[in-house]
């Protein structure tokens, strides 16, 4: 079977790309022929079909009004339509599996897929289908009041990075794609949501519940390493940004100087984190910067527990799945899809999002209570078996077969 895999980035930019490449590898391992379609970028991994990739547009400029061409591409990419038409003619894929196509590729490719009678499946990684603010976080708080409707409110609230112009561009995009063309619902046959929370959000926004299934992300167990040292520390790994709750975590660490924390990652709040650590004299916090591959796996393996202090709606964070696979207790915010992974405080601890005092109490509890820690760690390892690659493939293949059999 030949599968057309589409994602705007073709390098490991974030969690969505990590999942995308894991699915790609999985399909190839099971004998599928994969055809890639993405955006050109100097960081891209090699691909046999890279000559068909669309020209690059920097994420920072995609909403810029300095270029009408760039704004036009945000709404409708004639280049993407032309190139995917040529790619389809050459490769003749049997099914298309989309991931993130917003902005740089645009949904302009969808009618081409439909015209060629190629079934289209989309894995939904965020809230971009239903909100101008793709992570539903604006001005330091949850922003979910315009789900699937009344996008104009985003202008008043400046829901995209606090900017009127960025918000206007996002609002125009939402009205054009969803209210005028209804292009996603018309042309996509099935949506895969990694969490029930996200699925319910799509349905709330008007998407057909019969075209949606819940299939959590997966973790590759071969990446799990044993503990190799006796250093005791908590670990945060992820993007250093406001919605991820990094400042809530640092504030919580002020109350528990006996607890050690290592922070892995980069992002827009990195310099502010450095300033806060210096200002509050947080000698128990260490910033390690960007880590990946074996280096990151070793840090997870040697940690005592992992912290996910998000204050935005999370979907199905790979950081939690990876931590569970390593047998690490996860202390996480009870928000979005996270409670679907941390169940009844059995394989981790759920805390109220955005509350430093509550978070510090939970961290201190798991740090001091070794019996509790070991019980939770054991359950974490057990529950990780629900998120294995083989189980994911079985479910994904059933989705593929459902639409291939209709041909």
What does this structure look like?
- With about 400 residues, the chain is α/β, with parallel strands linked by helices.
- It is about 40% helix and about 15% strand.
- It contains 15 helices and 14 strands.
- It has helices spanning about 15-30, 70-75, 80-90, 110-115, 155, 165-180, 185, 195-205, 245-255, 270-280, 295-300, 320-325, 355-370, 370-385, 390-405; strands at about 1-5, 35, 95-100, 120-125, 135-140, 140, 190-195, 210-215, 235, 260-265, 285-290, 305-310, 330-335, 350.
- The strands form three sheets. The protein has a six-stranded parallel β-sheet, sandwiched between helices. It has a six-stranded parallel β-sheet with strand order 11-10-9-12-13-14, sandwiched between helices.
- The chain is globular, with a radius of gyration of 22 Å.
Structural class: alpha/beta
Strand content: 5-15%
Task: Classify the helix fraction into a percent range.
Answer: 25-40%
CATH fourth-tier homologous superfamily of the largest domain: Glycogen Phosphorylase B
CATH class of the largest domain: Alpha Beta
Within the CATH hierarchy, at the fold level, what is the topology of the largest domain? Rossmann fold
Note the main sheet: 6 strands, parallel
Number of helices: 15
Arrangement of strands in the largest sheet: 2-1-3-4-7-8
Cα(first) to Cα(last) distance is 14 Å
| Rg calc | 22 Å
Mean pLDDT: 93
| Unreliable sequence segments | none
**What is the number of strand segments?**
14
